[in-house]
Amino acid sequence: MAIMPPLTTTDQQPSGTTARKAPPAWAVMLAVCAGQFLVVLDVSVVNVAMPSMRASLGLSELGLQWVVNAYVITFAGFLMLGGRAADLFGRKRVFLIGLGLFTAASLGGGLAQEPWQLIAARTVQGVGAAVLAPATLTILTTSFPQGPARTRAVATWTAVGAGGGAAGGLVGGLLTQFLSWRWVLLINVPIGALVLVGAALCLSESRQDGRRRLDIPGALLVTGGLALVAYGIVQTGERGWTAAGALLPLLAGLVVLGAFVAVEARSAAPLMPLGVFRPRSVWATTSAMVVVGAGMFSMWYFLSLYTQNVLGYTALQAGLSFLPHSLSIVIGSKAAPRLMALPRLGAKTVAVAGVLLAAIGMAWQSTMDAHGTYLGTILGPGVTMALGAGLSATPIAAICTSGAAAGDAGLVSGLINTSRQMGGALGLSVLSTVAAGVMGSGRVALADGYALAFRVGAVVLLAGVLLMLFSLPGREKDEAPHAA
Length: 484
Known about the structure:
Residues 1-20 and 476-484 have low confidence and may be disordered. The protein is mostly helical. The protein has helices spanning 25-44, 50-57, 61-89, 91-110, 115-141, 148-178, 183-186, 188-202, 216-239, 244-266, 280-296, 299-310, 315-321, 323-340, 347-365, 374-402, 409-436, 443-471, 475-478; strands at residues 17-19, 206-208. It is built from 19 helices and two strands. The chain has a two-stranded antiparallel sheet. The chain crosses the membrane at residues 25-50, 62-82, 94-112, 124-142, 154-175, 181-204, 216-234, 240-262, 282-303, 315-333, 345-365, 385-412, 424-446, 452-472. It is a multi-pass membrane protein. Its main location: membrane. Residues 28-476 form the Major facilitator superfamily (MFS) profile domain.
């Protein structure tokens, strides 16, 4: 990791904020990256533990998917609220509240005795993660001056987050194999407690001055709308696209999301001020994030199922098989800022190249079959997908935050994550439904379903490449801050 300069308060806090003396750079990086690692880890850590969860609690196929989506949907739905809360009530305070809620919910999930208890705990975990995650990025963007120092800090934050997602398979495999599936959640309790103490001692408080109002109805509407749409998509796989049980939740979700937009347009203190999308850098990157998230998010989910259900790997073997993926995604995240700084590249070129590389990896992975091998079927495509994911994340985030007003730093940070998770939740629902449509009993049928999911995911990523080519601002606008 590049050595970070000492933090000072000069020109590093948005206008209208209050702050104490800033702590050392290493302390800020350690605290926020630890929080981000936990948040992202829990998106993927349950994947390799799902067969054990299903056997222990008697989860159905639908229930198994909601162990993942309950976390992701509440995470996506409350991220904007978390970002605004960090700006208004203090980044340190919100960081501690979110981490405390996340840790308590992890304990509840690890002790669950019924499927509904596990899904409920994952839902609360998602809320805690949504409060915590935007505070981590906002603390960085308001602590480091714009330029190389901030780019390195964001790249490190992105690499840690990406590594958390990639390491989830290994961590989950180790804990499931040698302890129990319950420890994929219980492990957060001691780690969360340590980070809570460290953050309370090391971080200094900062916030935006002004009226402290939060748009709770807006957060409930967007979360409920996403949940209904995702549920409706899942029901199409079981009942068909014309069944009332699928169409009604889909239509209801769209109506609720429409109500969310209407409420935000009229609210005196909206959760998502529509004006924040005026800069091209913001609306283009958030749109791209939805599409890219829909294609990339389910990679770990389907690889975990393929290795265990088709190739017969144990939970530990599945986790170990993802180690090269973890390394690749971190390498991509750390290489991105250096490539962005090259005279002939810039953020847009690196972002597009990363997503295109991930699409190639997805298409390659879709050639899997029931007789696949690690070297011939998993290693090459997985490394390609992960490298592309790592390369694309930092430049997209850099373009988005460079166009935001200083006072909206937390909101835009939340929007970046919301877009990715929103796309991921809906993408997982769609791709799972597509895979289920061709899957039957037996290893061959399962492999065919997983392969189709990767094939459709590659098409989604190619659509993301086209969207980015025509919508993202060019290099001359990449680093131009939006005037408040």
